[in-house]
Amino acid sequence: RAFNFNAGPAALPLEVLERAQAEFVDFQGTGMSIMEMSHRGAVYEGVHNDTASRLLKLLGNPSGYQVLFLQGGASTQFAMLPMNLLTEGKTAGYVKSGSWANKALKEAKLIGDTFIASSSEEDKYMSTPDVSRLQLPENTAYVHLTSNETIEGTQFREFPDTGSVPLIADMSSDILCRPFDLNQFGLVYAGAQKNLGPSGLTVVIAREELLKNSPKHLPTMFRYDTHAESNSLYNTPPSFSVYMMNEVLKWIEEQGSLEGIEEKNREKADLLYQTIDNSGGFYRGCVHPEDRSIMNVTFRMASEELEKLFVKESEKEGFVGLKGHRSVGGLRASIYNAVPYGSIKALVDFMNQFQKSHG
Ligand code: PLP
């Protein structure tokens, strides 16, 4: 298997792929693949409901939350969220932390009034914005933040207390990488294709009351209440992706749940950041150390030529996905939950070797 550092779709646990392979053509003696079954049948519905309850269980089963399985990616949530919650006479606060936060803000502006609750633009998004003293107008519908900026490589350590104003998070690139208190949030959403499973599935976890009163004029498929009332079975769900997520959640339980996963993720990230920091400036981390992501490690070298050579030589050695996002350049290793420690070890060995030959 390749050393897969793709940003998304990204590596899945080998054990999960093998389990899925074993029941690919005959799911538990039904004579059918799970993807060939009716989404209205008891077998699929069992998987569907089990996936939602496993997810809530991993998050400590806080009361009053519901899981939705949607499609259209996190990008659709950028619009669906304000369509449902940013109603007439209200404004929404956006924390400008980088590329994905800006995309979310751009969509919200098409729907209603917004304001910048905090920003790290002046720091070129190489740190997370200060969210310790947010000033929120009385008519604030919600505050939106991006818990992990996949492109720049920043990640919030702590989340603000927004009182009675719902806090909303795009957790696409760090959901389930560590424990977090769901009670702090009104709604979180994530495209599945990094830490949850294959692409095609978008997960929303929200306080039930936020899913109840979608504005009357919204078309059926864009209403949270449609999906909440029909247990995400209003139309055909991405059933195979939900099944795969179910297997990923079982795998996370086997890793010691979120505490166990976090410990492993920190070991992996520490090894990589230490290699960068101990290289005497040959490799340079992009982000302020206290705001570095444990999921997306961004770094640079002395010149773009050297970075290109690094990517080219790494590919020859079986490394995939180390080129930084086209909008910012540089190098990026995405080290989501499923990337094994052994892949990071192989990467740092390669980095040390590359420095010896080209340093
Ligand atoms: N938000 C973040 C933080 C992301 O990393 C991504 C994709 O990489 C998106 C949103 C967009 O997700 P999707 O492609 O599922 O629309």
Under CATH at level 1, the class of the largest domain stands as Alpha Beta
The tally of helices reads: 9
Give the overall shape, derived from the CA principal axes.
globular
Content-based structural category: alpha/beta
Helix fraction? Answer: 25-40%
> What is the assigned CATH homologous superfamily of the largest domain?
Type I PLP-dependent aspartate aminotransferase-like (Major domain)
Task: Report mean pLDDT, rounded to a whole number.
Answer: 98
Ranges with pLDDT <50 over ≥5 residues?
none
In which order are the strands of the major sheet placed?
Answer: 2-10-9-8-5-3-4
Properties at a glance:
359 residues; alpha/beta; Aspartate Aminotransferase, domain 2; Aspartate Aminotransferase, domain 1; 2 domains; 3-stranded antiparallel β-sheet; 9 helices; 14 strands; binds pyridoxal-5'-phosphate; PyrdxlP-dep_Trfase_major
